[in-house]
Specification:
With about 200 residues, the chain is an alpha+beta fold. The protein folds into 2 domains: about 5-70, 434 Repressor (Amino-terminal Domain), CATH 1.10.260.40; about 80-195, Jelly Rolls (Sandwich), CATH 2.60.120. Helices cover about 25% and strands about 25% of the residues. It is built from 6 helices and 9 strands. It has helices at about 5, 10-20, 25-30, 35-45, 50-60, 190-195, and strands spanning about 85-90, 95, 105-115, 130-135, 140-145, 145-150, 155-160, 165-170, 175-180. The strands form 2 sheets. A 6-stranded antiparallel beta sheet has the order 1-2-3-9-4-7, covered by helices on one side. The protein has a 3-stranded antiparallel beta sheet with strand order 6-5-8, with no helix packed on it. The longest helix has 13 residues, at about 10-20. The two termini are about 25 Å apart. About 25% of the residues are buried.
Length: about 200
């Protein structure tokens, strides 16, 4: 599924939040620095928003970036077809959500695709809760505190995410990971931190 196909729901959510805030397209554009045309295309699902654009829109609307991916509140079951995953991406890194929107959600699973010679962050990050990583394809280096773990297909890693961590693909092939965040208080900081450039 392409990001253009995945983003109409995100665009609709942005439009809903904008309208609930009583903002016109022009007013939101002035707040976030994006053009009216760019926001309009995002809302209509005609343009794939970058992570940087989503951060600007979230700040302008006064919501966490995760609010754009919340489909329905108070759901007790979330079913996601493989053709309908919500996708967030920035240069060399793409996260596809495997399920967001559960009532009191504490687990957030993603498929992560990382291009060759790319890294998640220049500096290590921390966030609340725990993190689970399972290598599906390729090879990835995952640093937790001062230790670097080399993950190949079938290898996994589970750690307290309060430890500084980052990962990178130092190989010539794309790497594919299953990444699951757990936060005891259900706070979306893990996803936000991982998508910051």
């Amino acid at each position: 599924m392409t990001s253009q196909e995945a983003n109409p729901n995100v665009g609709q959510r942005i439009r809903t939040l904008r309208e609930e805030s009583g903002l016109s397209l022009r007013a939101l554009a002035e707040r976030c620095g994006l053009s009216v045309n760019a926001i309009s295309r995002i809302e209509r699902g005609e343009n794939s928003p970058t992570v940087a654009s989503l951060h600007l829109l979230a700040k302008a609307l006064g919501v966490p970036i995760t609010e754009f991916f919340r489909a329905t509140a108070d759901r007790s079951t979330v079913y996601v077809k493989h053709t309908e995953r919500t996708k967030m991406e920035r240069s060399g890194l793409a996260l596809e959500s495997l399920g967001i929107g559960l009532r009191d959600q504490k687990l957030e699973p993603f498929i992560v695709r990382m291009q060759p010679s790319e890294h998640s962050h220049t500096d290590a990050i921390t966030h609340a809760g725990q993190e689970f990583v399972y290598c599906l394809e390729g090879e990835i280096s995952y640093q937790v505190s001062d230790t670097v773990y080399s993950l190949e297909p079938g290898d996994s890693l589970l750690f307290e995410a309060s430890q500084p961590h980052r990962f990178w693909n130092g190989n010539n092939a794309c790497a594919l990971l299953l990444l699951v965040f757990e936060t005891g208080d259900g706070h979306p900081a893990a996803r936000q931190r991982h998508m910051e450039a």
